[in-house]
C-alpha cells in the first residue's frame, strides 16, 4: 500500500524565543497526513512564527517537532523541500506588478530548474513546456482559480485581483511543486463571511486530496485541528485531537528572525 502523500506534523514543548521574549512556547500537536491544521490567534500572538518554524523557515529555541518524519530543528533544510509557502506577508508575497501568467511561468521555471533530474532537463523543449503547463493547470484546478474569469484573463495584474483571487493564486503557485505540506498565513484576513467560507472550503479540499495544510487565522473552523496562540496566562492551547500547550506573545516576526535565523 502506498504511503500517504501528506506530511504528518507532531510537536512537543515547541518554542521559539526572539530578542524581546518568547514568540511561542510549549506548543504541542499530533496531526496525521492530509490534516487541516489551523493556527488560531490574534495578530501579534506568535502564530506566523509558529507557521514558519513548523515549515523549517525559522529555528526553534526549545522542544522538538517532526514534519513528515523529519526532526526539527536538525532537518530544517529537508523540511523546507517538502513544505511550500502560500502567502506569508514579508516572506512570500505576490509581486503586485506581475501578471497572473508571469507568476505562474516563473514558478514553473524555478520548479523545473531546481527540482528536476538531469534527464528531465535534457528532454525536448516541447515536452518540457507541456510538462510545465500540465503542472500549472493541475495547480490552478486544485486552487479553484480559472484565469479566464479574471478581468484580463492571465494578463491580469496581481494588484487588480480580489483578495480571495490573490489567495487562490498564491496557493496555486505553492501547489505547482506538489508539496507534502502547504502553509498559508492570514487565511481569513480582509474576507467577508462568505469569502472566508470559500477559503476554508479550498484548504479543506487540498487536505482531502492528501496534502497536509497549516493555516494561520483569527477564527478556525470547527473541523480543523486547532493550535491556539492567544493564551495570556500560559494555561494551555487546545486542539481538535486534545493536544495542549502554552503560548506567549510574539514581539514581531522580524525580531524572531533576527534572533533565531531565517532560512
Short description:
With 263 residues, this protein is an alpha/beta fold. The protein is built from eight helices and nine strands. A five-stranded parallel β-sheet has the order 6-7-8-3-9, sandwiched between helices. It has a four-stranded antiparallel β-sheet with strand order 2-1-4-5.
Q: Can you give a write-up of this model?
A:
The chain is built from eight helices and nine strands. With 263 residues, it is of the alpha/beta class. The chain has a five-stranded parallel β-sheet, with helices on both faces. The chain has a four-stranded antiparallel β-sheet with strand order 2-1-4-5. Strand 7, helix 7 and strand 8 form a beta-alpha-beta unit. Helix 3 runs parallel beside helix 6 and helix 5 crosses helix 6. The longest helix has 19 residues. The C terminus is likely disordered.
Q: What percentage of residues falls in helices of 4 or more residues?
A: 25-40%
How far apart the termini lie comes to 35 Å
- What series of H and E elements makes up the topology? EEEHEEHEHHHHEHEEH
Morphology call:
globular
The structural class is alpha/beta
Number of helices: 8
Cα gyration radius (Å): 18 Å
Low-confidence segments, given as residue ranges, are 232-252, 254-263
Major pleated sheet:
5 strands, parallel
Relative strand content: 15-25%
Name the average pLDDT. 86
Write down how many β-strands occur, each being a DSSP E stretch of 2 or more residues. 9
User: Can you list the strand order of the major beta sheet?
Assistant: 6-7-8-3-9
